[in-house]
Write a structure and sequence with these properties.
Layout: E1 11-14, H1 20-26, H2 31-37, E2 39-43, H3 45-53, E3 58-63, H4 71-82, E4 86-90, H5 92-99, E5 107-112, E6 128-133, H6 138-151, E7 155-159, H7 168-174, E8 183-186, H8 188-198, E9 201-205, E10 211-212, E11 222-226, H9 235-240, E12 243-246, H10 258-269
Parallel strand pairs: 1-4, 3-4, 6-7, 6-11, 7-8, 9-11, 9-12, 10-12
Antiparallel strand pairs: 2-5, 3-5
This protein binds S-adenosylmethionine.
Length: 274
């Protein structure tokens, strides 16, 4: 958000739909603005609370007058202010405009993006990470981040040209897990080189595999590798995997949805820990 109309320490009241702050936050719906600012928008008090717990950078919290006096909202606003963020009170019409929803959440936050370097990723014995090759659907990506959090897997590696984990749709689908799950972005060659050097086992999922997914050992340091929604795993990525597995299907569907397949695989790989 641009440094406009700042009154440090004070709650700023914003009721005009043409206020420049509204324009700045609304622009975060677009990838270009997210890239330029390194920020993104998240909706709901839970997201703001999750971000505060994980010490994520928070540029601003905004809430509607109707929830101003709720203790959790006041506590979150005080925490954001203590970290140097802006506290904004916005009419529901303004919240609807910035979130592009008819029935907006009463609390929204503007957060700083955070990606981890691949070199920092260490996969321990019995731990699981997920690698997604060219995932395109933000709803799938957000659902996978939420599932990774749910099963106690350790993080997500985004490989190649993927959708943006900080888009509105992806953030919504994570239901706050975005703040609890480390994310890494890298290229395919760098990922394969890192996997070789760090000795992790790459478990690929492939519709042409013959190995049943229930036969995979659950204790080794593992990265589960999932393919793109249309094309599946690329040939080089499939070849780089130590094992390729298939989830059997009985009906006439060609494949499972990517997020569903990831969930099935994660519950199997985490079977000894849940
Ligand atoms: N047409 C694509 C193909 O031929 O691979 C379908 C891709 S599928 C929608 C997306 C990803 O979900 C796959 O790359 C794989 O990672 C996973 N997947 C879906 N169904 C699967 C199954 N039955 N067994 C293993 N992986 C599966």
């Amino acid at each position: 958000m641009a440094d406009r109309e700042k009154a440090p320490g004070a709650v700023r009241q914003i009721t005009s739909l043409t206020n420049p702050v509204v324009k700045d936050i609304r622009a975060l719906a677009m990838k270009k603005a997210r890239e330029e600012t390194g920020q993104f928008l998240g909706e709901g008090l839970k997201l703001v609370t999750d971000a505060l717990e994980e010490h994520w950078p928070i540029a601003a919290v905004a809430y509607a007058p109707a929830v101003r006096d709720q203790p959790h909202v006041a506590k979150a606003a005080a925490a954001v202010r203590a970290r140097g963020g802006d506290v904004l009170e916005m009419s529901e019409a303004v919240l609807a405009k910035i979130t592009r929803r008819d029935n907006p959440q009463m609390v929204v936050g503007v957060f700083g993006q955070r990606l981890r370097p691949l070199a920092d990723v260490k996969v321990g014995e019995g731990e699981v990470w997920v690698a997604l090759e060219e995932v395109r659907d933000p709803g799938n990506l957000g659902t996978i981040i939420r599932t990774v959090d749910s099963v106690g897997a350790k993080g997500v590696v985004l490989i190649g040209d993927t959708c943006d984990p900080f888009s509105f749709e992806a953030v919504r689908a994570t239901m706050g897990s975005l703040f609890h799950v480390p994310l890494v972005k890298t290229g395919r060659d760098a990922f394969v080189a890192w996997a070789r050097a760090s000795g992790v086992r790459l478990v690929g999922t492939h519709l042409k595999a013959t190995h049943d997914y229930r036969k995979v050992e659950a204790h080794a340091p593992t990265v589960l590798v999932m393919g793109n929604e249309q094309a599946g795993l690329s040939e080089p990525m499939s070849a780089a995997c130590d094992v390729r597995v298939k989830i059997p299907m009985a009906g006439r569907a060609d494949s499972l949805n990517l997020a569903v397949a990831t969930g099935v695989m994660l519950y199997e790989l985490r079977r000894n820990s849940l």
